[in-house]
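quick one before i forget lol
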Amino acid sequence: MLDAILSPEWDYRYFSFNRKWDESRDERMASMRNGSGDKYFLVFSPQGGILKGFDHEAIMSPWSRELHDVWPGVLDSCPLYLRLF
């Protein structure tokens, strides 16, 4: 909450939470962006939740390999609905 008070504009916040991210589907979203490219987004929905993160120094980063895609196996057991985020 303090982050939202000190940085009213979403673009300048480190942490954010939007309880009305998609009201039509009753979804909420939390995020963190450190300003250096590392970030995460959490989506909470009645069907479940998913965390999408990026750390530019991580070995699993899409940019650490030739193919810039999700690390093999990470989404294998994830429902299709949640993969779309």
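fyi The chain has two helices and four strands.
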